[in-house]
Amino acid sequence: MILRSVILEDFGLYAGVTELDLIPRHRNGGPSPIVLIGGKNGTGKTTLLEAVRLALYGRRALGARVAQTDYDEYLRGRINRGAIAPAAAVGLEFDYAEAGDVHRYRVRREWVVRGKSVVENLLLEKDGEAITSVPRDEWHHFLQELIPPGVSQLFFFDGEKISEIADGEEENEHLADAVRGLLGIELVARLRIDLGLYLARYQQGEDGAIAARLEAVNRDFGIAERRAAQLADEVAELSAARESQARAAEHVRRRFVSEGGDAAVHRAKTEGEREEVRRAVARVEHELRDLSNKLLPFAMAPKLVGAFRTALARASVAGEAQANSFETVRAAVLAWRAEGTPKRQASWNAKHWADLKRFFDAQVVGVPELQASPAFREVGDGAAALARLSEIETLVRPRAAALLDEVDALTQRGRDLDTALARADNAASGVLLDELRLAEQRVGSTEATLKTRQEELKLLRGQTVTLDRERRRLLDEQAASIKGGARAELAARTAQALADYEQRLLEHKLTQLRAEFVRRFNQLARKENLIVEIRIDPTTFAATLIDRSGREIPKGALSAGEKQIYAIAMLWALATTSGRPLPMIIDTPLARLDSDHRAKLVKRYFPAASHQVILLSTDTEVDDRLMGELGSSVSHAYRLDYDQAGGRTTALYGYFADQLELTEKHRALQQA
Questions:
Q1: Which of 261, 374, 455, 560 is surrounded by the fewest CB atoms within 10 Å?
Q2: Can you point out the beta strands (E) in 554-659?
Q3: On the CB side of 253, how many CA atoms lie within 13 Å of its CA?
Q4: Which of 369, 396, 426 corresponds to the end of one domain?
Q5: Which residues of the chain have pLDDT under 70?
Q6: Within 13 Å, how many C-alpha atoms sit on residue 354's CB side?
Q7: Strand, coil or helix: what is 654?
Q8: Which CATH number fits the domain that encloses residue 86?
């Protein structure tokens, strides 16, 4: 197979019509298999690979089970933004050999957006004429039979596919599909089934039970397989519908909340919270009133209170000092009376001493009253008054400030709740609530249906596995026990031979694959002879790497670059072992590799991977040095340039260095 050209019309970044010639040339007397397409990130390299897959497989290019709605959305999104009409197309021309004859095929897949729908059309020509041997509505299947998607993914691949093999946990499943499909083993299995059906029609006697059972199993298997395919499509459609309905429900919910609907739903809760806020405000106001009846007013005149406290303190100190002086004198007089020292000259009787005592008592009690002002007399106990006045700054003022802050916060919260209640009153009489509930019911219903279909699909897939196992057992039993009839005996021997052939072919192909993988891996790996053997289980297809010491190497022990080399070597070995002459399209395979691994891929892999290699690379992957290493292996090259102003990509002939050289020559001519 040779890819001759790919055409993109208003597809992705490619505005208008872009056609790339992909036919490899001969240079220096030998083949030059590589067509190098360079472009920086975001210029549309992967879009070219995408266009080839889309032209061949349509919806299947996105995956085995993709909903039609998702595919329509994908097609809608791939139309260039600057397109005059809401339409786009991809085309592919290739040569394909059938029974020794080379035929030229042209595929064109076009689509146009009409309102909410996308109309797709497929055109298929063989040797210049539309194919008539296959009904038009079967052209999709014809292309998939011509180049099976499972096969092409091993020849048309990108960094994502390499990572899938390098890091993916489902590698065994991919390897099993590749070995059976790519190496022709699946064809042998289908032949065995066809022979079993033939034998079932001709068997008689005691083997009739096997024949009847085989027919029943084949019938059940076909029904289960068709139903599984139907359910898979339903699951894809339901998944897409669920996502769409969930987005719609979220949109309604946002409208509902923005228009007060959420407050309407929670009105009782909001009203209860509003009542709690009112009670809290009343409690705070009561405490403030209580403070106002006590010391809080003094906090409003801090300077006056400060001056009063100072004067009170001074008056209290002076009065106390004078009282103490009189007490001292009185105590001394009483001691003089008792002791008689110094000796008294006059004759003092009891009346004299009583008068003197009354004098001193009157002096001690009257001192504060004489020195105090009318305001001080109202205060009473000066020490107690001073203690009470100190509470104004330490207790009353901070508490009053805290209560005021609490009142402000509660008042604002009350306003917010009043606003929410007003919005709830203004909500459109439950219309949006009904719409929201209906949208959520749709999502729930679709989700329930999806889960049911998924469980049913899981059960059906288990049944198909069981039926296939039973079918193989009956085929083996039938081939071993067939009796009578030359034709039936021949068919039985053929069936047995096919069973043996299938087993031996699998063993032979796996032996070839193991040897080819080890050879390719060691060709590309930086460490010499890191792997000397790979074991592939013929049942599970689990791969185990063996080093020079005979020890197993877990794939997780490989470096990131070595895992990349592992994946590329496996793809190369599969392609080589299959013997299918298909072209290679390789998109940015060097991103995670160091310079040594890159150099080995450039020297040993790209020139030998296939008779036609379309290599999509950035300027940092295949740079000037590696371009020189490729040398005459490159047939011709393109460079993809993205125009920021026009929002489109243009394909120019020549690689990065070639374009730079042309630009410099153009500048030199302008200067001259």
A1: 374
A2: 584-587, 613-617, 634-643, 648-653
A3: 11
A4: 426
A5: 151, 154, 159-190, 192-211, 256-268, 312-327, 362-386, 421, 423-433, 477-492, 589, 591-592, 657-672
A6: 3
A7: coil
A8: 3.40.50.300
